[in-house]
Every structure is written in C-alpha cells, then in structure tokens.
Specification:
Strand content: 25-35%
Helix content: 10-25%
Largest sheet: 7 strands, mixed
Order of helices and strands: HEEEEEEHEEEHH
Number of helices: 4
Number of strands: 9
Length: 161
Amino acid sequence: MAGMAGVGLSGCAAVDASPGGRPIALDSETIRYETAPCFGTCPVYAVTLTPDGKGIFEGKRFTAVTGIRAFRITSAAYQAFAARLAPYRPAGNEMLYHPGTPNCGNAPSDMPSVDIVWTGSSGGRQHLNVYDGCGSQTMRDALRAAPGDLPIQPFIGRPQG
C-alpha cells in the first residue's frame, strides 16, 4: 500500500484543458486503470502510471501474475496511453456508463467494466467508469485497447495453474 501512495504522490502540476474543453494529461498526473470482474474469466487487475516512467501492476483474478509488480515505461508509452484515454476523459469530475443511467440503455448482464481515475498533484481528479455494454463501441474498443500501449501483457497473459 505504501508503494501505491508513493506513486500517487509523485508530480507537481495541475490538470490543463485541451482546446475542445476536455482535460488532458500533464507531466505530473497519475492515471489508474482498473478492470472489474465479469461472469467469466475476464482478467481483473489495476495499473497505476506516472509520467516519470513508474508503473505498478496489481493482478487480482484471472491474470498470469497475482499481486503487485513494479515496471518502467517510457515517456512515449505514457503519452500514448494518456492520449488513447483522453477523448473519453470526463470534462467534469465524473462520468458513469452503467445500466440504468442516462448514458446506457439496455445492456447485457455480467460484462466487465473499466474504471479510470486521473489524479493531479493538487488532488484534483476525474473519474470514468464504463460498463462494457454501455456507451459507444468506439469508446469501449479504445478503453479495452489502451493497456496494449503498456508493457504489461506478460502480467495479464493467461493465468498459471
């Protein structure tokens, strides 16, 4: 836990806004990307990243690695990951795409979801939670593909045993 707190505290700048009004990642922002369980064997894990190259992978269920693993990323990998997520980042504090909300009509049950939190050094944050049956297909595809920008496939892989 202490290691996670250290990752979350690194950095020194606030969140800025893009010309379209959506916040964009700055050089001090922490991004946490977390998957949630589904009815099957969907990998359940969390990844926390800082732009200085620190990454923490936490395998929870149905991953090749369980527990916490530290890794390093390049600035380019961080920027690619942040850029892939940026179009879906809420302009306000939070956006939820769940069955029963205005952002989601009828959705199949037992699907996985993705939870993303952008946290600035000043403590400001934006939160996006997307249930896989809600929102646009383009958004869901981009959110599922985002971990491909990171060197974590060996951690996710196929569960051992």
